[in-house]
């Protein structure tokens, strides 16, 4: 795609370790206002993730970015991403291929979300997961502190079988809890994907639509051959790699909708 995605660096981000559910990871924090946990995509807290974080800070949010893998600030390259992916595929914290799985990293995120909610204004916090971590945003919403889960191209479990393609990325008990919250508490979730993204099959979103109904809002960007925006057939990273700072650009509009969704659920007031 012509043009370049927005990027940023670690300038102004405060780093501190955070321990929860038996795990310790460095967490980067910036901003004031209601809280958003931004969970990085593979290969880690890269310049595109930091640009998204800075944009959210500019929109009036306190943003925390945990760093469970990769080297914060390091640019993306194919060898770097493949190396991180290879390690994550065999890490029990994430259980990349398991169906109906309670993933330990979700417990860590819930602890982090509760901590952020306890010290930021609003009814709770948002959680944005992307790619490898996309489904963890929904798993985090088992905890009542999470009121705005955003699932951007949720890829786990890797869709290498029919059972994995329809799996929502969390255990049945966790899923039932989140569905019950949508019916009893008005919890809503936002999901984003490209239409041709085989890593994020429509079958997975169909599962979510079937159980959440109107409480699951979907943004699906056209990546079919010849699409008007010029997305490639391998387009995947809705909120980072595919964004262009051009008015009317579909991925930019998707990012704006994410901000709007967070604003509706968290009520941060005027943008900074």
Name of the CATH first level: Alpha Beta
The topology string of helices and strands comes to EEEHEHHEHEHHEHEH
* Mean pLDDT across residues: 96
State the CATH architecture: 3-Layer(aba) Sandwich
As for the number of domains, it is: 1
Helix count, per DSSP?
8
Strand % is 15-25%
Keywords: Hydrolase
Protein name: Dienelactone hydrolase
Domain Dienelactone hydrolase: 32-150
GO molecular function: hydrolase activity
What's the arrangement of secondary structure elements?
Blueprint lengths: L13 E7 L2 E8 L4 E4 L8 H12 L3 E6 L10 H11 L15 H15 L6 E6 L5 H5 L5 E7 L9 H5 L5 H13 L4 E6 L7 H11 L3 E6 L28 H17 L6
Keywords: Hydrolase
GO molecular function, one term: hydrolase activity
InterPro entries: AB_hydrolase_fold, Dienelactn_hydro
Notes on the protein architecture:
- This protein has helices at 47-58, 78-88, 104-118, 136-140, 162-166, 172-184, 202-212, 250-266, and strands at residues 14-20, 23-30, 35-38, 62-67, 125-130, 146-152, 189-194, 216-221.
- The chain has an 8-stranded mixed β-sheet with strand order 1-2-4-3-5-6-7-8, with helices on both faces.
- The protein contains 8 helices and 8 strands; from the N terminus they run E-E-E-H-E-H-H-E-H-E-H-H-E-H-E-H.
- It is of the alpha/beta class.
- It has one domain: Alpha/Beta hydrolase fold, catalytic domain (Rossmann fold, 3-Layer(aba) Sandwich), CATH 3.40.50.
